[in-house]
Amino acid sequence: MQIYVSTFVGFFVSVALFWLTYRQTAGARKERVKSANTDLEKILLRRIVLESYQPTLRDLSFIINGKARDFRVKSRDLLSESQLLETLVTRISESDFIDASRRQEILDRLSPILISAEDAPIDESRLTELPSKKQKRIRLLVTLSAGIFASILGTFTALITLPKKELALDIKDSSFIPVMIAFIASMAAIILMIIINRLRESQEEDSETNSLQLEIDFEQTIQRFVRKHARNIIYVHPKVNFDFIALFGDRKILIEVKTWARPVPSSVIFPIVSRLNQAIKDENASEAIVVTRADMKAPSELLKDTQVHIMSLREFRNYIVHKFTK
What we know:
By secondary structure, the protein is an alpha/beta fold. It has helices at 2-24, 26-51, 57-70, 81-94, 100-119, 124-128, 133-160, 177-204, 211-229, 266-283, 313-324; strands at 232-235, 244-248, 251-258, 287-292, 308-312.
């Protein structure tokens, strides 16, 4: 019976030690990032709804940097200005405590700054601070090393809790089995915890530390696809109202990339459609396409009598393939 108790004690010590180590290092930072983002959301939501506060992008940058210092994290770990605005718009849209007229008034006030945040050029200083693949591998190796060390300590604990008559261990003796079980079981549990945490972090990276890289990757995915089917791509100045021009034969299409992962209010879509309409005339283009990560399902009246289309990446690929590759 004592042998089984020793095995359990060794397993428990290994897993508990690894979990405490993780919580005091990487886990502690993640909790601070989560708390800082929650605090940012609550503060701005109260000011915007209760005090009709109208933030600017500069204000948001100051607030984000200030919260980063308060919670001892890097500003790149927190929500970006555009992500923070998208979160606020979502919270206001889904709130049952704001009447319809008041909600629309708030969304109309936030629309210009949300559009400005979407159109702002990528901050290269934040991009260079993103963790590289090498840094991620180093973090993984450090975590695995901590897991192995915790398993060894747990195994040692199982060893010293064995009855004295069992301490003379021999690998050929059955008394060696509890120690090996404690080590193998604890390592399996720790590896499973690491895998779960990595999967969770990979999902969170979509809206946190890798938001800038996500935007770049999404735009590059679209550009690579267009290069395969278009005659040429023309890049434009960052201050122009779209990202690049795709030439398909004698047709000129303006492409605007938006990393929207969820539907946005009509008050955000309308100004984009209006300025793209003007860009079509200025550039003598055939049409303009806004490519998004998610299906927007924009109201049909916004796109009536216009050559502006809003498509998800899947819809954009199908549209180009069927219309220009036949």
